Design the sequence.
């Protein structure tokens, strides 16, 4: 089919606004027009019968009935449409001239060494005597599936009808059909909200490659995110290796490479899955993890690391006994549409893991740049007398671009086919395609006609020296991975640096219809190669899934078996070389600063110097930077990485058919430190910086300061070019006393600016002024002073000596006022006071260097008649003796004896003081306001 057009109409319903929440009452029609041309068909003879094949098509295969061409199609549906039926609305038909005796369909046959001589099934007499066109329907609806939120209808078209009794062929040159449906369909598979841009592009490319109307494809995320069944480790991840703890560390080089190139990868232990996921079997637990990882992380690639005992296969019976497959994990809702890409490394030892990983890394990163990447070997043998796989290989050869060197080994060739195959393998083949009878330890090289083939030992003895092959085979059992010694494993994991790097083939029987070399397993083979060279599916997992998506599996158990048993022994994310590897020339800054900055990358072809678009770039600095993106049409991509520390940021660029580009940028802005200020005075200070590392670049150092924190700083001064290990400083002058300043050391070179930590300094304040001290009683002194500007606090110390250093006196005050009364003092004593200013700002504090000073003598105490600075019995006796017997008067001033404060000394004062001292009466009156002259009465 070479032309098609699709028309989508929404009838009798309302507009569907959300594809994930369809309107249930809507009715839909999708119209499709298929056109066919005779040059798309092959007319041939087989055993005297006429055979007609549709290039890149299929055949109707009802045993004994006419084998006629058919075509399976997939059509993208509008959101919410549930397909109910298909009808033909118009056709253009012509009758081909001549008579045709159409070959009768044969039962499926195994592509195994013991299944070669099967009796030919003669034409069904009733069917071949019929006057009715066969098949009756020219269009059939098979089923509906979905992927990444896109609904897909599966239909089969029969462009030719045969009238057996008349031996006439009717050829439909055009068929107009309508898919009819209603609203209400909800997808089972939506695009994960956590999927990467690269993952989204993978799904978009995959679905567009499946359907006839790629322009209508619209991916949708779920209206309601599927809840995780457990606590997944922190992600997301594009790729996951599921293996045992024994092998986990050995897969790390592969995980590291994936992550480095922008496919974020991790290893998950199977035992962790078994402990954290529900399921009736370990297979179901792993499947539930895959569902969870795809839904939550957006993971698209899964590598199963181990044999059946480590990571179990799922066994099913579609056409023959229990058949193992990893399709259980890739098509996790059993709708024959694959949600993820799965491959297996069926390793049984750590050395086999090493062999597998090393082969993948060698193939992907460092292939031999000889003719090897363009070398292809096609092996096509007769499966029986009427089925010649040479025809299949010639069709596959037509897809291979002309620059490839194709070696063919066919049954029609002379000489030893076995020798020719081994010789070709030893010379180094990038791609190998094999179609012949096979078994677990054997691949035929002319088995039907000559009994020839290669065995495990032959594979072990290959000497292709790092020119490892990607092998695809349609034979029975070569990929029997649940057996410890299948020939596929000898290609991939038993033979370091030799043989193969991947094997796609059957874990059990491959099947074909006799007389049809394009049927069943051979059709999967054909679609594998079509996908690789015509549908841009170039990764191992992608091309496997693409072949299955373009295989009309339907509800037929024979076809289901063929798809189920076709599995990948290999890394699903590994790209396949489909041209001679070229090199990339990449330009970007080799030094970047700490913190966010613009990072522009330019990618060009190293040979033609033309820009390379859609090159995939990954910037990675562990735990700090992980950015990916594609170059634009002009070869540019702009990132804004924000590394937090010095070190290496990896720059990796990949694109199909280019050698990976690996380099790095150094987070190399100067490493500079701010050091504490010294010599801080009232109006000056010295600030310092230290350039620890200039990373080999000429570096200018700066110091900046301001009274406000943070950029921009009001003042900044260059200290000139400095080298690693050098200090630099500035003496600041004309600063404000008692002010808080912020300062920082900075450095600048070609990698950008960097700054040390912002530090602070607090200048010293001026001392207080006009400090006065006045005794206000026998026990108090009143202090007052003037605070200078910006000073919050004053600290005052008291002493009995006239001068001392701060801290040697008794601190009596430390607060914000400008006056204070010192109390609790000894009467008639001389006290000295010194006052300093104190500034406290943001945990810094400074005292003034200078201080102001004052002194005062406390007053006498009334009642202290004898002047011994206390009131006791001696004062009572002294005063009584003075008043009653004319003894000595009170010590000067005489008013000491006026205890009651009545301005006269008499008996009442004696009694007052005696009562105070002896009986706890009122204390003597304060003498502060007394007049000195007091008389005796």
Sequence:
């Amino acid at each position: 089919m070479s032309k098609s057009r699709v028309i989508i109409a929404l009838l009798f319903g309302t507009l569907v606004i959300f594809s994930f929440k369809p309107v249930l009452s809507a009715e839909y029609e999708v119209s499709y027009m298929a056109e066919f041309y005779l040059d798309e068909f092959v007319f041939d003879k087989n055993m005297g019968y006429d055979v007609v094949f549709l290039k890149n098509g299929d055949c109707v295969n009802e045993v004994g009935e006419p084998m006629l061409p058919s075509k399976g199609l997939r059509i993208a549906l509008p959101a919410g449409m549930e397909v109910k039926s298909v009808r033909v609305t118009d056709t253009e038909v012509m009758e081909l001239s001549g008579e045709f005796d159409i070959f009768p369909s044969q039962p499926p046959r195994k592509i195994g060494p013991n299944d070669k001589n099967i009796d030919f099934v003669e034409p069904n007499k009733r069917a071949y005597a019929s006057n009715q066109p066969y098949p009756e329907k020219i269009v059939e609806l098979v089923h509906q599936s979905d992927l990444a939120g896109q609904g897909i209808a599966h239909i089969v078209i029969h462009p030719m009808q045969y009238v057996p009794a008349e031996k006439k062929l009717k050829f439909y040159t055009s068929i107009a059909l309508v898919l009819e449906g209603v609203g209400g369909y909800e997808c089972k598979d939506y695009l994960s909200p956590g999927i990467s841009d690269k993952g989204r592009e993978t799904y978009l490319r995959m679905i567009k490659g499946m359907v006839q109307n790629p322009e209508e494809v619209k991916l949708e995320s779920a209206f309601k995110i599927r809840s995780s069944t457990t606590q997944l480790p922190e992600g997301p991840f594009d790729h996951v290796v599921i293996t045992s703890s024994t092998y986990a560390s050995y897969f790390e080089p592969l995980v590291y490479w994936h992550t480095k190139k922008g496919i974020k990868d991790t290893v998950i232990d199977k035992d962790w899955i078994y402990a954290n996921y529900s399921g009736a079997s370990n297979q179901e637990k792993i499947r539930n993890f895959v569902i969870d990882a795809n839904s939550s992380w957006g993971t698209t690639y899964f590598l199963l690391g181990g044999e059946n005992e480590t990571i179990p296969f799922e066994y099913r019976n579609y056409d023959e006994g229990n058949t193992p497959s990893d399709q259980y994990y890739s098509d996790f809702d059993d709708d024959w549409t694959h949600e993820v890409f799965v491959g297996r490394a069926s390793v049984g030892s750590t050395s086999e893991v090493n062999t597998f990983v090393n082969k993948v890394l060698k193939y992907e990163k460092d292939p031999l740049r000889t003719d090897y990447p363009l070398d292809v070997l096609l092996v096509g043998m007769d499966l029986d007398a009427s089925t010649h796989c040479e025809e299949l290989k010639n069709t596959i050869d037509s897809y291979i671009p002309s620059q490839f060197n194709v070696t063919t080994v066919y049954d029609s060739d002379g000489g030893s086919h076995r020798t020719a195959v081994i010789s070709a393998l030893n010379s180094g083949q990038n791609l190998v395609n094999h179609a012949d009878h096979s078994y677990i330890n054997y691949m035929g090289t002319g088995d039907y006609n000559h009994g020839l083939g290669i065995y495990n030992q032959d594979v072990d003895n290959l000497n292709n020296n790092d020119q490892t092959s990607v092998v695809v085979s349609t034979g029975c059992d070569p990929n029997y991975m649940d057996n410890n010694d299948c020939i596929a494993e000898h290609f991939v994991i038993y033979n370091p640096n030799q043989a193969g790097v991947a094997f796609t083939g059957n874990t059990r029987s491959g099947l074909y219809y006799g007389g049809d070399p394009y049927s069943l397993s051979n059709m999967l083979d054909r679609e594998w190669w079509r996908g690789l060279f015509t549908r841009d599916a170039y990764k191992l997992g992608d091309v496997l899934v693409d072949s299955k998506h373009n295989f009309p599996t339907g509800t037929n158990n024979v076809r289901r078996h063929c798809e189920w048993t076709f599995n990948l022994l290999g890394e699903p994310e590994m790209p396949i070389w489909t041209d001679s590897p070229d090199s990339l020339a990449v330009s970007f800054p080799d030094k970047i600063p700490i913190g966010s900055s613009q990072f522009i990358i330019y990618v060009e072809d190293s040979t033609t110097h033309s820009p390379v678009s859609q090159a995939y770039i990954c910037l990675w600095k562990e735990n700090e930077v992980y950015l990916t993106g594609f170059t634009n049409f002009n070869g540019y991509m702009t990132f804004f990485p924000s590394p937090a520390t010095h070190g290496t940021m990896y720059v990796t660029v990949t694109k199909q058919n280019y050698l990976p580009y690996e380099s790095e940028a150094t987070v190399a802005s100067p490493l500079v430190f701010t050091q504490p200020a010294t010599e801080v005075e009232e109006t000056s200070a010295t600030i310092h910086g230290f350039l620890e590392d200039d990373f080999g670049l000429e570096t200018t150092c700066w110091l900046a300061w301001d009274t406000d924190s943070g950029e921009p700083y009001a003042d900044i001064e260059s200290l000139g070019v400095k080298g690693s290990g050098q200090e630099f400083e500035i003496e600041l002058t004309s600063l404000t006393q008692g002010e808080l300043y912020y300062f920082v050391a900075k450095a600048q070179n070609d990698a950008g600016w960097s700054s040390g930590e912002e530090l602070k300094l607090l200048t010293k304040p001026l001392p207080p002024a006009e400090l006065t001290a006045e005794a206000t009683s026998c026990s108090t002194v009143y202090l007052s002073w003037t605070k200078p500007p910006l000073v919050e606090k004053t600290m005052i110390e008291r002493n009995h000596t006239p001068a001392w250093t701060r801290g040697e006196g008794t601190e009596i005050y430390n607060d914000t006022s400008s006056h204070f009364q010192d109390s609790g003092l000894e009467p008639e004593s001389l006290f000295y006071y010194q006052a300093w200013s104190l500034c406290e700002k943001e945990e810094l504090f400074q005292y003034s260097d200078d201080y102001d000073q004052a002194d005062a003598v406390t007053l006498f105490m009334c009642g202290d008649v004898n002047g011994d600075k206390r009131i006791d019995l001696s004062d009572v006796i002294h005063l009584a003796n003075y008043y009653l017997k004319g003894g000595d008067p009170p010590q000067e001033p005489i008013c000491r004896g006026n205890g009651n404060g009545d301005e006269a000394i008499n008996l009442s004062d004696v009694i007052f003081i005696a009562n105070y001292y002896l009986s706890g009466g009122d204390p003597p009156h304060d003498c502060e306001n007394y007049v000195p002259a007091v008389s005796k009465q």
Q: What stands out?
A: The chain is about 20% helix and 35% strand. The mean pLDDT is 92. Residues 769-857 form a domain with the Immunoglobulin-like fold (CATH 2.60.40.10). The two ends are 144 Å apart (CA to CA).
